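In this section we walk through a basic example: taking a raw amino acid sequence and producing a predicted 3D structure, encoded as discrete structure tokens. The instruction is simple. Fold the sequence below.
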Amino acid sequence: MRWDCNLRIRLACLCFLFLVLESNAKVYPSAANTWPSWKRVLEGKRVGLVIHKSSMIGSRLMPEVLLENGVDVRMIFVPEHGLRVDFEAGATVGDHVDAVTGLPVVSLYGKRKGPETAHTDSLDIIVFDLQDVGVRFYTYLSTLHYVMEACSRASITLLVLDRPNVNDYTVDGPVMDTAYKSFVGMHPIPVMHGMTMGELAKMIKGEGWAKGSNNLNLQVWKMVNYQRGLRLQPPVPPSPNLRDSIALEWYPTLCFFEGCPVSVGRGTSSPFTLIGSPWMGIKDTCFIPKSIPGRAQSPLFMNQNCCGFSLEKFKKPRNQGISYEILLKVYKDFQKQHQSIGQEKNKTVRNDVFFNSFFDQLSGGSALRNALTKQHDANKIRSLFKPALDEFRRKRKQYLLYDDL
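The resulting token sequence is shown next.
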């Protein structure tokens, strides 16, 4: 009887543990979801929020929860793609009033990159909570930079609510040459930095990359039970064309093709999982980009038949970040096709027509373009960037808030 009783107790404990673990697994480990633990930071203060559709507390958008709990939220600032993530990449996001909360919504994408004095004069603190994808050229990091500068100028507090980096499993790619600084790359970090936004905020401040960094009152609210390398899927897509785990995994590689005559599936149901072009000799998969309002109004090669291949079946080493193999594969096919066209027309086709100036902005310099043009193999390309990556890893250690891989 005692054994039977003990067994029942053990089984009950195991069931309870399973339910607890299952419940915790459903809660995305963002710092926002530790509410109301950070409510005290906002009490008695006039609050601005830098948020978008992913900025949830549980299942509700952050300002709705804060307002219900008596927090004096004055305004919302939004990055590229807008508050509800319904603006396609590069689309102008205008100021407006949020229909749900009645709060003024101020765009930080376009001519205005950061909050202006007219905004910060009525605030005591700005809360920053954007779901990033862990890639240097994703513009939410640039928005963080300008918000840091605005808070420093106004002598107000910046509270960064940390969120998982969905591509935190490695550090990879070219480290940006500061001569190529732009809104798609503002800091001398690699394409895949392996850091959270909270850690990057600490690094930007610590390295003095943002104006007035020394005077900035920066607070980072850490996540609970966060581990790198889990490749966590955000409950809400961070932008209109990064809608699933496959697109998020391949984005660090495929975004380079935005600086080339190559479609990455914008204007289809599978953006950032397809590679194709009217000129491509590879015919494994074909698709026709169409106009999709809010996601791809005028996609590259719209209404043209594009052939190439799908990445849903393409396997790469689990912890490999950027696939130089894919970049080389497409570039070599381009050379093959255009050399043939050049011979037919009895004229020379330049080797660099594959790349436009945006490619160097995305890669943060000319080194990757030069390596691809010379058709180095993938391992040699990786070796070119290794010394700078090793130095970056050493520098980032002091800013990490969570155990490294």
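Looking at the output, two observations stand out. The radius of gyration is 23 Å. The chain is about 30% helix and 15% strand. In the next section we compare this with other chains.
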